[in-house]
């Protein structure tokens, strides 16, 4: 099992961003296999859609370091860990600029990028970046088209899309990974499943440890992944080529043994071999606490 962790990018850890490089270096030394970032631009005071079914957005999500800054810092001080995004909100970005930023991370890290893309859940964030909320699906599809073209062809053919256009052009550098970095997509709604089945190399399911409620690998991982692979096969793709990386989102009440149990059961009861843990809601004392939680998790999970 590959075990990764989110970088100290937001929450209480965002007050100690000068420790980000040290966290990345020590995480690698402690045996972490991957480091991850998320993507937010604001937390509305009165959101129309709250976090995880609530009517508010928790204080931990009010501040976030730019994901590309965090990845670049981590890439510069590590040698082995994979560097993932879970998730970048692709519709917010010009696809050419997103391709450039992701390519840069892959190149400077020596080919360690795992780009995970999604659409987010906050209409106010779309408003803030000037992108209509209703266009998220079409923009994500067009972004995937542009990433594929930029990363796999030279010169890149002229693009005339619904939202973006550019002439035939030379666009470099190319990612070190060939033919391109593996693209993971988030979301298990029917439309998201169909998109992932047609276009992604993997999916990003999420598990939330809840006190008194047992983790169910069948519901969280096996059944949704089986459906994505079924659709992929119907589309003429090899279903075995659809991977999954499990994100574990502990709450403020979660414990390390609960987290470790999810990791171990994922290894025993699914064919997923990569998980990562986001300590943003648990490490309320900052980066040093996150490192200690990381150390304990590794000890109980290996």
Topology:
Elements: E1 2-6, H1 20-29, E2 34-37, H2 67-77, E3 82-85, E4 88-89, H3 95-108, E5 113-114, E6 116-118, H4 123-129, H5 136-152, E7 159-160, E8 165-166, E9 184-186, H6 190-199, E10 202-204, E11 206-207, H7 217-234, E12 243-244, E13 246-248, H8 256-269, E14 274-277, H9 287-301
Parallel strand pairs: 1-2, 1-14, 2-3, 3-5, 4-6, 6-9, 9-10, 10-12, 11-13, 13-14
Antiparallel strand pairs: 7-8
Descriptive notes:
By secondary structure, the protein is of the alpha/beta class. It has a single domain, classed as Luciferase-like domain (TIM Barrel), CATH 3.20.20.30. The protein is 38% helix and 14% strand. The protein is built from nine helices and 14 strands. The protein has helices at 20-29, 67-77, 95-108, 123-129, 136-152, 190-199, 217-234, 256-269, 287-301, and strands at 2-6, 34-37, 82-85, 88-89, 113-114, 116-118, 159-160, 165-166, 184-186, 202-204, 206-207, 243-244, 246-248, 274-277. The strands form three sheets. A seven-stranded parallel beta sheet has the order 5-3-2-1-14-13-11. A hairpin with a 4-residue loop joins strand 7 and strand 8 (165-166). The model has no long low-confidence stretch (mean pLDDT 96). Residues 9-256 form the Luciferase-like domain. One of its GO terms (molecular function) is alkanesulfonate monooxygenase activity. Keywords: Flavoprotein, FMN, Monooxygenase, Oxidoreductase. Pfam families: Bac_luciferase. This is TIGR03619 family F420-dependent LLM class oxidoreductase.
């Amino acid at each position: 099992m590959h075990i990764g962790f989110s970088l100290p990018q937001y929450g209480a850890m965002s007050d100690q961003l000068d420790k980000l490089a040290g966290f990345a270096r020590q995480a690698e030394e402690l045996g972490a296999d991957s480091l991850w970032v998320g993507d937010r631009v604001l937390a509305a005071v009165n959101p129309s859609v709250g976090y995880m079914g609530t009517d508010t957005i928790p204080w931990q999500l009010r501040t976030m370091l730019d994901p590309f800054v965090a990845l670049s810092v981590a890439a510069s001080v590590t040698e082995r860990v994979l560097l993932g995004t879970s998730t970048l909100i692709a519709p917010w970005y010009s696809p050419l600029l997103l391709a450039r930023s992701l390519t840069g991370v892959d190149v400077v890290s020596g080919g360690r990028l795992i780009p995970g893309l999604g659409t987010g859940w906050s209409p106010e964030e779309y408003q803030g970046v000037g992108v209509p909320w209703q266009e998220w699906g079409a923009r994500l599809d067009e972004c995937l088209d542009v990433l594929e073209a930029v990363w796999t062809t030279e010169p890149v053919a002229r693009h005339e899309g619904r939202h973006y256009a550019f002439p035939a052009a030379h666009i470099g550098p190319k990612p070190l990974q060939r033919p391109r970095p593996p693209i993971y997509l988030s979301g298990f709604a029917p439309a998201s499943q169909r998109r992932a089945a047609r276009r992604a190399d993997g999916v990003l399911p999420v598990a939330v440890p809840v006190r008194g409620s047992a983790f169910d690998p069948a519901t969280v991982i096996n059944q949704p992944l089986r459906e994505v692979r079924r659709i992929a096969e119907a589309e003429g793709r090899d279903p075995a080529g659809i991977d999954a990386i499990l994100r574990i989102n502990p709450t403020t009440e979660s414990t390390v043994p609960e987290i470790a149990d999810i990791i171990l059961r994922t290894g025993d009861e699914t064919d997923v071999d990569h998980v990562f843990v986001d300590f943003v809601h648990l490490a309320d004392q900052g980066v040093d606490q996150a490192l200690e939680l990381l150390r304990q998790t590794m000890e109980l999970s290996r």
